[in-house]
Design goal:
Helix content is 72%, strand content 0%. It has 138 residues and is mostly helical.
Length: 138
């Protein structure tokens, strides 16, 4: 975890995460830093916490799906979506929202596809943030 980051390092953090022209960034660092009162070290610490919880949560979504529990799927997906939203991880939030919608609709086959998309978007997010927060990519 990064404890003290200067203004120059913070600017570099945002600059280093600029996506390619045709690629949407999986995280809005500027928004996250605003939410963290400009404290980049704190921003990285909450990203790290999310990274530790996300894979177990995705696995739990898959278990709930296998059990056929559409309402339970919607509840966990909504919690996951909220955590991603707090981080300004818009791509992950959008995919979790799709899982939630499928759970609420009772569409388990649709949820299966959406969970696969969520897992893929989370992997992209994890790889992306590993460039800035000294977090191993995998």
């Amino acid at each position: 975890m990064i404890d003290n980051i200067s203004d120059t390092e913070e600017a570099t953090m945002v600059e280093n995460t600029s996506p390619a022209q045709d690629e949407k960034s999986p995280i809005n660092y500027e928004m996250l830093l605003r939410r963290c009162a400009g404290n980049a070290g704190f921003a990285c610490s909450i990203i790290e916490k999310f990274l530790r919880r996300a894979l177990p949560d995705i696995e739990e979504l898959e278990q709930i799906l296998a059990a056929g529990d559409a309402p339970g799927l919607a509840v966990l997906a909504q919690r996951f979506k909220s955590c991603a939203a707090d981080l300004s991880a818009d791509g992950v939030r959008e995919k979790a929202e799709e899982v939630e919608a499928m759970g609420r609709a009772g569409n388990l086959e649709g949820a299966r596809v959406c969970i696969e998309r969520l897992r893929s978007e989370f992997a992209r997010f994890r790889h992306y943030v590993s460039k800035t927060c000294a977090i191993p990519p995998g």
